[in-house]
Amino acid sequence: MKIVTFNIQNLFHRDRSFLEKPFNKNKEEWEMEVDQLLEKPTKSSQDNERIRELAPLVGMDNGYQLPYAVLRRKAGFLFLKGKNYLNELRASELTDWNGWIALQNYPLDPIAVENKARVIADVNPDILVLQEIEDRASLEEFNDEFLSWFGCKPFQKTCVMQGNSKRGQEIGILTRKGYEIKSVRSHVYDLNFPGEIGFDKDLMEYEILTARGNSLWILATHLQEQTEYKEHSDAKRKAQAEKIAEVYHKLYAEGKKQIAVMGTLNTISYCNSLAPLLQRTNLKLVTKHPSFNVDFDKGKDAGYYSLGAYRMGVNIKQKDYLLLSPELFDKVKSSGLNRKGIWPDKRPMWWVYPSIHCKAHAASEHPAIWVDLSL
């Protein structure tokens, strides 16, 4: 039985807030310029043209919601405008603003979508856990239409429950024939110590009945990202890790010994925020198993170890984890990591799919981690 965890970073569309913003240094100046232009009692044609140029860059939105619209690409983003728009901007009348709406989502490159399917087809699991998917409809379409392009049969069952994310970062699970999703539990409403929602995405608890009639419990999660406010993000992630450890200990005490914890924990293994999971439970990292296999970096980087990397010669910062209870760890036949869909911005370099020629073609910024169990 093969299990895979993969942060796929959306299937078809991604929230535009994830895009790198290359104009941050100039944005304040542009906003000041727009304010000055809008305050002018009379505007020349050059003023109106300049407002048109700056509008998408400073995030001006259109108040109209018309049934028909046109799309245009400006500064690398997609913008929408009502079909019956005038050629000139009426910038002096706020209620009649005739600008552009920046779409909340942007479409992923079709080559990137294909490479996502290629990664999954390569590892070809029986149970697949995905982070950062838009919704179940997208997952169903991806499962039915794209996997077969690369000789991978679609999964028989899919399950997605909406979490707390407002940016399309749901957790989903797919299983093949013979692997039943016996129960699903969301921890979306679990509170932390101050009485706030603990998980800004979710912690999903699955019970899977395997082809041999054994039960497997999977805890799938996506913890707090690292932000510029490091102390705050570390504290929140630690509280989330403590909650997962609590759920794990409860299951284990009930005699449910075959447990896997997986997902994007969003920091390196020696970070104190992960101590509740990595140091205060008996969970074991699959990357520490002797069978763990991955293509090494090219050239001299194969003998180099970057602090916080998965291991020597696999020099990408570890954010994604697959943890196993001792009972499952003893049943590992083989394990590994697929990073062929990741675009290496700079050294160290590794082998990638031939279809990846730039970052936009990458399947994800995360590897797929897999384990094959005798269960």
TrEMBL record:
Protein name, entry field: Endonuclease/exonuclease/phosphatase family protein
Cross-referenced InterPro entries: Endo/exonu/phosph_ase_sf
Matching SUPFAM superfamilies: DNase I-like
Domain of life of the organism encoding this protein: Bacteria
Organism field: Autumnicola patrickiae
